Amino acid sequence: MSGRLGGLTTRGWCLIAAGAAAALCAVLVNERDLLRVAAFVMVLPVLASIVAGRTKIRLQARREVTPTPVSIGGHCRVSLTLRGAGRWSGRLLLEDTVPRSLGNPRRAVVAQLPRDAEVQLSYPLHPMERAVHWLGPLTAQVTDPLGLARYHRTLVGADRLVVRPAVLPLAGLPAGGECGAAGGEPVSAGSGQDAVVVRSYRQGDDLRRVHWRTTARRDELMVRVEEWAPRGGITVLLDHRASAHRGTGSTASLEYAVSLTASVYVHLRQRGIQVRLVTVDGAVLAGAGDGGERQADAALDALAALRATEQRDLIPLPATAGRQDVIAILGALGPAAVDQLLVHHVRCGRGHAVLLDVAAWASGNDDHGDGKWAPDPGKAARVLVAAGWTVAVADPQHCPSVVWNQLCTGSASKMRVPQ
Fold it and tell me: What distance in Å separates the CA atoms of residue 297 and residue 1, rounded to the nearest whole number?
């Protein structure tokens, strides 16, 4: 009985106290009618508690999130299905726990639960933060019609909602590949090991790279892009060091870097290139094998769960293939970090880097000070360019697709900074 009475509300306990007081008075004045009323008043909360407890046991529910996973800025809907084994005229207060980054907990009141029928409830979500979120648990508060008894029960546990970084459409490949930038698509001028890839001449191209044989045949000035050789794949390196980024929340430089990395990874896979996705702490988020859509989904899920690392140094790429190209999305690089990058990847193929001007992501109340914390990306860019890398510099004002296009139209002898 004590377990049943534990579900009584304040109103129920007051009613029992009033009944007990009335019963005492009835005994003192020897009033049987008052005693009957007191007994009824005391039994009523107990009956309400028993009924509410039976209703609690019969409740069933399930949760469904569609679509899942979802990208930042996307929309999804959470559907709740509630079913009871019998008719209940009391009130059900449902509460589904939602992380603060997705909004407040969602509550709903079911005034009446139909017999052997389902009640459908739903609410929308508009996630704006990349993460692996957990929805739930879904709890129900069962109250009898008179408000005398109340019970709580967990109907559904927690479900995972993966919010992936935004993947933007990109075009072309970095210099030395199949550049699809403005100025003409590249073409193969021959076959076998002696073949080269050429494209239309663009203002600023080195005239020493003009491919005269193709120029004569096409009656158009063509320049050599690369010696045609079997592809060894591309490694995409993401710098997620906390010390290399600035800003907070969804507008931080790290979020920009993650979105660009996801876009580059998806774009390269769509072009049929074997891609490895690695981070500066040596973790391999996706291997170079085919793996199909499953591997791409796993890589995007890994990026969704990625958090900044407290590591300050760059370490070698794990198991780097012989002449594999590297595309690095990097935060702030001091002289030591630049040296580490060049030493670690000296045996790689072509190197391409996007340097984030992280000082542009700084807020006025940033704890890092007046901007001296963030090295000038121009200095690191000049060192990388001198070492043969293609470099583009990004800031918050430029869409990742614009920065990627700058990287594609650059060359190893020229640094491209978005204008």
Answer: 53
